[in-house]
Write a structure and sequence with these properties.
- The protein has a single domain, classed as Metallo-dependent phosphatases (Purple Acid Phosphatase, chain A, domain 2, 4-Layer Sandwich), CATH 3.60.21.10.
- Helix content is 20%, strand content 25%.
- It has helices spanning 36-50, 69-79, 96-103, 137-149, 179-186; strands spanning 13-18, 30-31, 34-35, 56-60, 86-89, 112-115, 118-122, 154-158, 192-197, 204-208, 211-215, 222-223, 232-233, 238-244, 250-256.
- Helix 2 packs across helix 3 and helix 4 packs parallel to helix 5 (179-186).
- The longest helix has 15 residues, at 36-50.
C-alpha cells in the first residue's frame, strides 16, 4: 500500500473517511436490501471524482459484515483505486485476525500517523463478541502516551463507537461505554482538535470544550437521525472529507452518491 505523503508544515492535510462498509465474502450479498459492495464502489467513484488529492484514507470500523478475510481483501482492493495510503480500525462487526491477514505487508493497522503538522491516532474501541464499545486500559494508555509525546502537533483521534449521545434512543446502549475515561484523558491536552468515529451511520458535527466531534454516513445503509427505535433511513451512502490546517483548524464536509435507489428490506437482517 502507498505510504502517507509528507505535506509541508504550512500546507493542509487532505483526508477521506470511509466507514461502516459491511462487506461480505460474497460480493452479491445484501444488507437490509442494499448490496454493500456495490454501494462502496459508488462511494469510491465519487471520492475519485471529488478528491484529486488524498494524503490519508481513514477506515473507521465495520469494514466487514461477516468477518471473513475475503471481505477485507475486497475492501483493500476496492480502495486501492484511490491510490492513497490507508489506516484501518476495528468496529463491532470486524474480525481482528482476518483484518490483520488482509493488512499484512502494509501499515494499515499502525495506530499513530504523523503527517504535516498533525498526529492522527487510530484507537480500537471494539470488544470481541459485543456490540457496545470500550477503550480498554491499553488503548487509553496509547492515547495518553501519543498526546504526551507530541505537544506541538494538533491531534485527530479516531475510533468506532460514539462517545456522546446522538439523539437516537436505540443507539444509546451500544455506544462507547467508558466515554468518561476517554474525556478524562483528552481534557488534559489542549492540542486535541477533533474526534472522528463511525458506527452511527449518519452525519454528526458538534463541539465539546473546543474539540470538534464528527461522525459520518456509512458507505452502505443509513440510520434515520433522531429515531427512537431501529430505523433505516432513505439517505444515500456517502463519505467525509477533511482538511486539517497547520494552525489546527478543521474544514470538513459530507458527500453522498447521487441517483441512488434501493428498497429497504428489514427481513435482510442486520
Amino acid at each position: 500500500m502507498p505510504q502517507p505523503s509528507t505535506p509541508h508544515d504550512h500546507a493542509p492535510v487532505y483526508l477521506v473517511q470511509l466507514t461502516d462498509s459491511h462487506l461480505f465474502a460474497d460480493a452479491d450479498r445484501t444488507l437490509l436490501g442494499m448490496n454493500t459492495c456495490e454501494s462502496l464502489q459508488r462511494v469510491i467513484e465519487r471520492v475519485r471524482d471529488e478528491q484529486p488529492r488524498i494524503d490519508l484514507l481513514l477506515a473507521t470500523g465495520d469494514l466487514s459484515q461477516d468477518g471473513t478475510q475475503a471481505s477485507y481483501a475486497r475492501f483493500r482492493d476496492l480502495t486501492s483505486s484511490l491510490q492513497a495510503p490507508s489506516r484501518w480500525l476495528a468496529g463491532n462487526h470486524d474480525e481482528p485476525l482476518s483484518m490483520e491477514q488482509a493488512a499484512q505487508g502494509s501499515q494499515a493497522l499502525e495506530p499513530v500517523v504523523d503527517i504535516g503538522n498533525w498526529r492522527i491516532l487510530m484507537l480500537n474501541s471494539a470488544v470481541p463478541g459485543a456490540v457496545p464499545g470500550v477503550l480498554d486500559e491499553r488503548e487509553l494508555k496509547l492515547l495518553d502516551q501519543a498526546l504526551a509525546e507530541a505537544p506541538g502537533r494538533h491531534h485527530l483521534i479516531c475510533f468506532h463507537h460514539q462517545p456522546v449521545p446522538i439523539d437516537c434512543a436505540w443507539m444509546a446502549p451500544i455506544g462507547l461505554r467508558n466515554a468518561d475515561a476517554l474525556f478524562a484523558v483528552l481534557d488534559r491536552y489542549p492540542q486535541v482538535r477533533a474526534l472522528l468515529w463511525g458506527h452511527i451511520h449518519q452525519e454528526w458535527d458538534q463541539m465539546r470544550n473546543g474539540v470538534r466531534l464528527l461522525a459520518s454516513p456509512s458507505t452502505c445503509i443509513q440510520f434515520e437521525p433522531g429515531s427512537e427505535d431501529f430505523k433505516v433511513g432513505e439517505q444515500a451512502p456517502g463519505y467525509r472529507w477533511l482538511r486539517l490546517h497547520p494552525d489546527g483548524a478543521v474544514d470538513t464536509g459530507v458527500s453522498r452518491v447521487s441517483d441512488f435507489e434501493f428498497t429497504i428490506d428489514y427481513e435482510d437482517g442486520y
